[in-house]
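Sequence design from tokenized structure. All designs in this work follow the same two-part layout: the structure record, then the generated sequence. An example of the structure record is given first.
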């Protein structure tokens, strides 16, 4: 059987220090070169503290107080990572306030210092206390991370939670061995300190660094998706009136027409009468309020399956599936009354609307139907405004029929 020399603790400590330095360096490099979020620098600070924890062990022979300092820098790791989590997921309701993390760290460290001062030569007592406190810190952090509302959706947060639990369980054999050696002189410290366990913990720390970076990239991806969604809204909707613009309305209306029985939909094109006069008297701000009032009134009275959009300027369009011309004229009348009601509550000047209404014919394209409705709208303007005109198709020529005078103040 091959014989393996036991691991040399000073050499192992040096290697661990180098690995931890690389982890902290990577976190810092990413932090200064990439976009990061609240809490990221807590995670980075936790890695640097871990590294200094390993380095201080080289000085413990000349300076015994370096031992508790090294322990403090090591014990802080899960709680400092938790502090970063609190910032990263600032909208989550953690189970306890942030100050309990600090109280937990101070309490655990004081427990270790008490054992260290009272048992300066008892390796078993020191290792047992350190392991017990460290396990408690890991489980406390896992308990808090489990309260983050996003942990079920984020695979990386699940991985961190799993890691915290495994890291705590990984130290149990070391703690059991140390408690068994409490008060007993130890010839070989490796039996209690278990370098393999230390290596496993360092590997787990490196894994957590990787998970923290992935959490950062996951948040960046979410922000990019949200930015894309907002850009899509800006591209599809008129920002002033919050209704679809011409292009998006045409896309949705064409799809709706494909799914509707041929000849069953009505189309209305309408605008504000004397809109230039509104702008001249009330300024562009008053004109904007008038546009928003008309769009808002249309959204209130239309059904969920109806579509409304802004063609440009003060001109709007509405597609009413499964609607006759007569029903569409009732909708126009209700819309005018809704506008007048909203105008009165906002104490604005009277507004009147003109409508052009058509029944979309089987096989007729949306642009052709819109053109006919626009011609009917112009006819409504010629006949005195404040009214709705329907364009009915008879053979190859359209016939305009004045159906109804609209407007509470006009009637």
């Amino acid at each position: 059987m091959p014989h393996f020399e036991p691991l040399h603790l000073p050499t192992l400590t040096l290697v661990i220090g180098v690995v931890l330095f690389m982890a902290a360096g990577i976190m810092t490099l990413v932090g200064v070169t990439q976009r990061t979020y609240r809490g990221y620098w807590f995670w980075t600070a936790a890695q640097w503290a871990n590294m200094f924890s390993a380095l201080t062990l080289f000085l413990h022979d000349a300076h015994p107080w370096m031992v508790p300092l090294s322990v403090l820098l090591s014990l802080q790791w899960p709680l400092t990572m938790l502090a970063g989590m609190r910032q990263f997921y600032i909208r989550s309701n953690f189970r306890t306030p942030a100050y309990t993390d600090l109280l937990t760290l101070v309490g655990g460290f004081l427990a270790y210092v008490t054992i260290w001062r009272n048992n300066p030569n008892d390796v078993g007592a020191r290792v047992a206390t350190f392991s017990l406190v460290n396990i408690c810190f890991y489980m406390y952090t896992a308990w808090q991370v489990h309260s983050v509302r996003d942990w079920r959706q984020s695979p990386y947060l699940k991985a961190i939670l799993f890691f915290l639990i495994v890291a705590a369980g990984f130290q149990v054999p070391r703690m059991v061995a140390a408690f068994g050696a409490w008060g007993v002189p130890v010839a070989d410290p490796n039996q209690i300190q278990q370098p393999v366990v230390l290596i496993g913990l360092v590997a787990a720390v490196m894994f957590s660094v990787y998970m923290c970076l992935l959490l950062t990239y996951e948040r960046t991806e979410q922000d990019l998706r949200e930015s894309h969604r907002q850009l899509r809204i800006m591209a599809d909707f008129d920002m002033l009136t919050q209704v679809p613009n011409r292009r998006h309305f045409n896309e949705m209306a064409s799809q709706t027409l494909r799914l509707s029985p041929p000849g069953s939909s009505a189309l209305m094109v309408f605008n504000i009468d004397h809109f230039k006069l509104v702008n001249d008297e009330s300024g562009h701000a008053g004109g904007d309020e008038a546009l928003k009032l008309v769009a808002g009134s249309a959204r209130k009275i239309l059904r969920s399956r109806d579509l409304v959009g802004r063609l440009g300027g003060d001109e709007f369009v509405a597609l009413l599936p499964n609607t006759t011309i007569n029903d569409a004229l009732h909708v126009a009348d209700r819309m005018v009354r809704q506008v007048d009601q909203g105008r009165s509550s906002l104490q604005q000047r009277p507004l009147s609307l003109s409508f052009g209404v058509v029944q979309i014919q089987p096989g007729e394209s949306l642009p052709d139907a819109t053109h006919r409705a626009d011609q009917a709208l112009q006819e409504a303007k010629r006949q005195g405004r404040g009214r709705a005109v329907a364009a009915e198709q008879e053979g190859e020529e359209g016939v305009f029929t004045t159906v109804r005078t609209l407007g509470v103040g006009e009637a």
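The mean pLDDT is 83. We note this feature because it recurs in several other targets discussed in the main text.
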